[in-house]
C-alpha cells in the first residue's frame, strides 16, 4: 500500500515536472529548455555510467569483496538505459545551443580548424555509437549477471572478466566523447585535453555515492544484512580517495591554464569565475572536496552509515553543481535558478526514482549465481 | 610456579576465536595483553581496551602544519623577500603555491606516520623484540592468531596463565623467554653506521655541487649545455647573417604590440591616455603596477624597493615633485622605453596596460600628497 502511494506521488511529480518543462519551452524559449535538458540527462547518465564503471572494475581486477553488493551498482547502471533515448533526443538541441553548428562561427579559425570533428552528422554518429556501445556492454556485463542468478552458470563470470578490459577501453573513449561533445563544445573555441578525465572523476564519485546511498537504504529496510562494516569501509575508502582525485584533476586543469594564460584556454575560466559564478566555485570546492574530505578522514567514518549517507548526498548534489557550473555559463548570463530548473529537477528526479523503484527489485539482492559470492561474504578487513 | 619470561602466548585458529577470547582472558588476569595477527582484524583494539593510537591526530596536525609551512615558504620567498616577476603573474599568486603546499603536506604527514609508527608503536631503538624468538612467529605470519599475556617487568604465573588461555579457546600455548642479551652488533654501532652513511651522502652531494659549479666544461657536466637548440643572443651558422635571434618578418607586428613612432621623451610629452578614467582601468593599472613596477619602485611608488636585495641602481621615487610634474605621455614613454638603468616594458605591458599604469601612478602620487581639504566635510 505504502509503496504504491510512493509510486503514485513520484508519477504525479514526474508528470507535473513534464508540464513545467513544456511550459518553460513556450515561456523562456528553446535555449533554456535545451540547456536544462543537457544538464539533467548528463547528470543522470554520468551517475549511471559511474555505477557501470564500478561493476566493470570488479570484473577487471577480479575483486571478491564487492561481489555481495555488486547487484546495487548493477541495478543503478540501468539509468544508462533510461537515458539512452534522452541522449538521442538531445541531438535536437544542437542548432539551438551549440554555436559551432552556425555557419558564421567558421569565421573563427579556431572553430574552423575543428570542423572535421564538430559537424552535425559526425556528432550524431558519435552519439549513436556511444549509446550502442553502452547497450551492448550492458547486455554482456549486467543482463548476463541477472541471468546467472537462475542459471548458476560460472561461464558468465569468465566472460565478464574477459570483457571487462574491453569495456574499460570503450568506457574511456565514450566518456571522453561525452565530455568533449556535450560539455566542452558548448565553448567550441576552448581546448582542454584533460576534460574527459575530469568528467570521469566526477562520474565515478557520483556512481560511488549513488551505490553507497542505495546500499544504505536497502540495509535500513532490512535487506543485504550480510554486507557488513568491512564492505562499507571499502566503499568509504573509494569515496575518500576519489574526492582527492577529482580535486587533483580539477585543479591541475585550472592551474595549467592559469599559468599559460592562452586566450583560447582561459576564456572558459574567465566566464566561469566572473559575477556570481565566482562564489559558486567556492561552494563547489567546499562541498565537492573540503567537506567530504574532512568528514571521511577518520577511520571510523568510512564504515559509519550515518556519515557515509551524509557524504553520499553531498557528493551527488556537488556532482550536479559541478555540471551546472560547467554547462550553464554557456548561455552567457549569470546563474539561472527559476521554476524551469525546478520543473526539470522534478521531472528527471521523479522519473529516475520511479525507474529505480522498479530496477531495485530486479533479480536477487545479491548475485546468488556468482561463484565468488561466499568468498565475498566472508570478506573481513 | 613462576619463572622469568617475556609473555605467555595462546594460538587461535581464527580471528573470530581470538576476538572472542580477549574478554575472557581480560577477566582472568590483570596483565598487559597484546595480539599478533597476520592481517589487521576489525575491533581488536577495542577488545584489548587500547586507547586510540595518537598517530592519526599527529598526522593531521603535521599535515596542516605542512600546508601552512608550504604556504609560508612560498609567500616569504616569492612575495615578501624577493618578489621576482614570474610569467607576468602578480607576486603572491596563490595558484602557483598549491602544488608546493600539497607536496609539503604529504611529506610532513607521511614522515609523521612512518617515523611515529617506528618510534611510538615499534619502540625504536629496541632492535630485538622478544617475540621474534618465538617458535610460533612463522605461523602467526601465515594463518594463526596469537594473544600474548605479557609479564611487563613482574613475574607471571605461567601455568595459571596457560590454563586461562586454553580455557578461552587457544589451540596451543607457548612461553616466550626473556630477551636475549645484546648480540655482537650493538644498537649504537648501527646508529653510528647510519650517521656515517648520512654524512657521506651529504659530503658526496656537496662535492658534486662544487664539481659541477667549478668545472662545468668537463664531461659529463658539459652534456647539459650541449643541446641542439639556439640560445638567446648567440650566433648561428644556419642564417646567412650569422645572427641567432631573428627580427619579425618585414611589415608585420606582433598582436597587441603596435610599434611606437615616438622616439624621444619630448615627442612623447604631448600624448594623452585614450582610456576613460574608470575604476576598472585603475584596477588594471594597479595589477600591472604591482606585478612589474612595485618590485623596484615600491608598492607606494616611493622608490623603496620591495626587493630586499640591493643591486646598485637607486629606483626613482615616483611620488617626488619631479615626476609629479612629468606629463602623462612622458611617464608612458618611460614605461615603454625605460630610463637610466630601467629597461623598457613594452613587451610585458601593451599600450592600454601602459596607460592604465600611468593612471595608477597618478593615483599613487595623489594619495601620497593628500591634503586636509581632501577629506569630505562629514567625516572630519
Order of secondary-structure elements of chain A: HHHHHHHHHHHHHHH
From N to C, what is the helix and strand string of chain B? Answer: EEHEHHHHEEHEHHHHHH
Number of strands of chain A: 0
Number of beta strands of chain B: 6
Helix percent band of chain B: 40-55%
Query: What is the CA–CA distance across the termini of chain A?
Result: 41 Å
Please give the radius of gyration of chain B in angstroms: 37 Å
Considering residues with a beta carbon less than 8 A from a beta carbon on another chain, report the largest interface and each chain's count. A-B, 13 and 14 residues
Number of domains of chain B: 2
The number of helices of chain A is 15
Beta-strand residue percentage of chain B: 5-15%
Low-confidence stretches of chain B: none
Q: Summarize the main sheet of chain B.
A: 4 strands, antiparallel
- Percentage of residues in DSSP E strands of chain A: under 5%
- The N- and C-terminal alpha carbons of chain B lie at a distance of 94 Å
Could you explain how this protein is built, in words?
The complex is a heterodimer of chains A (381) and B (380). Chain A contains 15 helices and no strands. Chain A is an all-alpha fold. Chain A is globular. The mean pLDDT of chain A is 93. Chain B has helices at residues 15-28, 44-48, 55-81, 98-121, 137-140, 158-167, 187-214, 265-268, 279-297, 321-324, 328-337, 351-368, and strands at 2-3, 7-12, 32-36, 145-150, 156-157, 172-176. Chain B is an alpha+beta fold. Chain B has twelve helices and six strands. In chain B, the strands form two sheets. Chain B has a four-stranded antiparallel β-sheet, covered by helices on one side. A two-stranded antiparallel sheet of chain B has the order 1-5. At the A-B interface, helix 10 of A face loops of B.
Amino acid at each position: 500500500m505504502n509503496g504504491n502511494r510512493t509510486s503514485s506521488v513520484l508519477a504525479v511529480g514526474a508528470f507535473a515536472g513534464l508540464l513545467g518543462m513544456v511550459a518553460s519551452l513556450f515561456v523562456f524559449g528553446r535555449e533554456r529548455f535545451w540547456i536544462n535538458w543537457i544538464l539533467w540527462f548528463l547528470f543522470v547518465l554520468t551517475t549511471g555510467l559511474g555505477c557501470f564503471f564500478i561493476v566493470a572494475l570488479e570484473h577487471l581486477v577480479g575483486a571478491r569483496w564487492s561481489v555481495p553488493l555488486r547487484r546495487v551498482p548493477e541495478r543503478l547502471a540501468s539509468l544508462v538505459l533510461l537515458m539512452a533515448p534522452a541522449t538521442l533526443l538531445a541531438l535536437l538541441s544542437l542548432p539551438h545551443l551549440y554555436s559551432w553548428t552556425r555557419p558564421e562561427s567558421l569565421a573563427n579559425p579556431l572553430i574552423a580548424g575543428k570542423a572535421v570533428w564538430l559537424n552535425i552528422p559526425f556528432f550524431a554518429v558519435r552519439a549513436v555509437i556511444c549509446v550502442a556501445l553502452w547497450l551492448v556492454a550492458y547486455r554482456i556485463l549486467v543482463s548476463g549477471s541477472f541471468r546467472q542468478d537462475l542459471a548458476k552458470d560460472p561461464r558468465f563470470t569468465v566472460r565478464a572478466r574477459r570483457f571487462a578490459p574491453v569495456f574499460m577501453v570503450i568506457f574511456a573513449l565514450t566518456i571522453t566523447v561525452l565530455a568533449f561533445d556535450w560539455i566542452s563544445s558548448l565553448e567550441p573555441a576552448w581546448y582542454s585535453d584533460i576534460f574527459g578525465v575530469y568528467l570521469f572523476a566526477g562520474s565515478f564519485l557520483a556512481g560511488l555515492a549513488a551505490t553507497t546511498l542505495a546500499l544504505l537504504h536497502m540495509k535500513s529496510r532490512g535487506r543485504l544484512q550480510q554486507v557488513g562494516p568491512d564492505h562499507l569501509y571499502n566503499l568509504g575508502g573509494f569515496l575518500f580517495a576519489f574526492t582527492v582525485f577529482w580535486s587533483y584533476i580539477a585543479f591541475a586543469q585550472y592551474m595549467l591554464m592559469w599559468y599559460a594564460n592562452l586566450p583560447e584556454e582561459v576564456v572558459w575560466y574567465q566566464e566561469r569565475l566572473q559575477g556570481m559564478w565566482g562564489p559558486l566555485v567556492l561552494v563547489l570546492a567546499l562541498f565537492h572536496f573540503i567537506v567530504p574530505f574532512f568528514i571521511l578522514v577518520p577511520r571510523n567514518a568510512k564504515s559509519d552509515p550515518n556519515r557515509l549517507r551524509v557524504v553520499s548526498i553531498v557528493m551527488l548534489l556537488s556532482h550536479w553543481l559541478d555540471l551546472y557550473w560547467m554547462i550553464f555559463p554557456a548561455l552567457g548570463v549569470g546563474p539561472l535558478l527559476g521554476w524551469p530548473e525546478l520543473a526539470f529537477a522534478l521531472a528527471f528526479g521523479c522519473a529516475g526514482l520511479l525507474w529505480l523503484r522498479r530496477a531495485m527489485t530486479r533479480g536477487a539482492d545479491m548475485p546468488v549465481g556468482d561463484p565468488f559470492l561466499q568468498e565475498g561474504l566472508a570478506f573481513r578487513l | 610456579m613462576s619463572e622469568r619470561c617475556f609473555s605467555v602466548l595462546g594460538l587461535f585458529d581464527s580471528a573470530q576465536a581470538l576476538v572472542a577470547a580477549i574478554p575472557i582472558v581480560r577477566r582472568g588476569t590483570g596483565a598487559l595483553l597484546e595480539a599478533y595477527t597476520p592481517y589487521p582484524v576489525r575491533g581488536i583494539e577495542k577488545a584489548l581496551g587500547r586507547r586510540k593510537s595518537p598517530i592519526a591526530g599527529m598526522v593531521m596536525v603535521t599535515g596542516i602544519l605542512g600546508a601552512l609551512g608550504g604556504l609560508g615558504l612560498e609567500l616569504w620567498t616569492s612575495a615578501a623577500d624577493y618578489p621576482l616577476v614570474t610569467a607576468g603573474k602578480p607576486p603572491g599568486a596563490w595558484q602557483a603555491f598549491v602544488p608546493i603546499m600539497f607536496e609539503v603536506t604529504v611529506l610532513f604527514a607521511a614522515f609523521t606516520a612512518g617515523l611515529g609508527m617506528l618510534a611510538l608503536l615499534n619502540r625504536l631503538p629496541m632492535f630485538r623484540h622478544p617475540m621474534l624468538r618465538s617458535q610460533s612467529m612463522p605461523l602467526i605470519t601465515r594463518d594463526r592468531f596469537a594473544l600474548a599475556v605479557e609479564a611487563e617487568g613482574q613475574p607471571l604465573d605461567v601455568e595459571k596463565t596457560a590454563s586461562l588461555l586454553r580455557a578461552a579457546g587457544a589451540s596451543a600455548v607457548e612461553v616466550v623467554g626473556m630477551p636475549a642479551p645484546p648480540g655482537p652488533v650493538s644498537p649504537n654501532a648501527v646508529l653510528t653506521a647510519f650517521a656515517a652513511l648520512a654524512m657521506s651522502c651529504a659530503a658526496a652531494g656537496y662535492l658534486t655541487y662544487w664539481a659541477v659549479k667549478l668545472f662545468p666544461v668537463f664531461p659529463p657536466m658539459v652534456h647539459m649545455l650541449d643541446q641542439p637548440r639556439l640560445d638567446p643572443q648567440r650566433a648561428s651558422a644556419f642564417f646567412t647573417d650569422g645572427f641567432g635571434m631573428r627580427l619579425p618578418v618585414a611589415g608585420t607586428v606582433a598582436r597587441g604590440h603596435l610599434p611606437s613612432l615616438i622616439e624621444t621623451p619630448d615627442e612623447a610629452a604631448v600624448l594623452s591616455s585614450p582610456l576613460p578614467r574608470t575604476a576598472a582601468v585603475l584596477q588594471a593599472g594597479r595589477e600591472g603596477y604591482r606585478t612589474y613596477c612595485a618590485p623596484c619602485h615600491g608598492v607606494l611608488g616611493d622608490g623603496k624597493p620591495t626587493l630586499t636585495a640591493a643591486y646598485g641602481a637607486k629606483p626613482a621615487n615616483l611620488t617626488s615633485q619631479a615626476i609629479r610634474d612629468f606629463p602623462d605621455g612622458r611617464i608612458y614613454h618611460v614605461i615603454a622605453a625605460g630610463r637610466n638603468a630601467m629597461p623598457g616594458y613594452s613587451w610585458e605591458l601593451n599600450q592600454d596596460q601602459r596607460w592604465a599604469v600611468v593612471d595608477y601612478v597618478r593615483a599613487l602620487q595623489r594619495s601620497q600628497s593628500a591634503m586636509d581639504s581632501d577629506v569630505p566635510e562629514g567625516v572630519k
